Amino acid sequence: QVQLVESGGGSVQAGGSLRLSCVGSGIFFRFNAVNWYRQAPGKQRELVAAITSWGNRNYADSVKGRVTISRDNAKNKVYLQMNSLKPEDTGVYYCNAVNTSGYWGQGTQVTVSS
User: Fold this and answer.
1) For residue 49, which of 3, 69, 79, 90 is within the disulfide window of CB 3.0 to 4.6 Å?
2) C-beta separation of 7 from 108 below 8 A
3) pLDDT digits (tens, 9 = 90+) for 40-56
């Protein structure tokens, strides 16, 4: 059974930083693509960052230069380091892993105040 658990969310002021973590069980992140999505109130879920099994990274234009996705194969974790946070970064952040199916975590709330 695959399970993804996010952590690291919280409330910060604009300009602050947070590091989100996603730990996986039942799935090996180093063999699969892992993505971070976010969903703001009243908006659709959107892709924030992605890392492939090869280590290639992609970012949404809205977060480029402020966000870094990384993976620790030994811990089977994927991180999302977010700097220079803006109020528009507020939302629930979800970890998503993809192999033959897609798997989601429960999400972690990020709130950025101005």
Assistant:
1) 69
2) yes
3) 999 999 999 999 999 99
Please give the pLDDT value at position 108: 98
Chain Cα centroid distance, residue 76 = 14
* Helices (H), ranges, the chain: none
Instruction: For residue 4, give both structure tokens.
Output: 């993804």
Beta bridge mates, 94 = 37
Residue 20 near residue 7, CB atoms below 8 Å? yes
pLDDT the model gives residue 27: 92
Name the residue type at position 62: S
CA angle 21/25/91 to nearest 5° reads 35
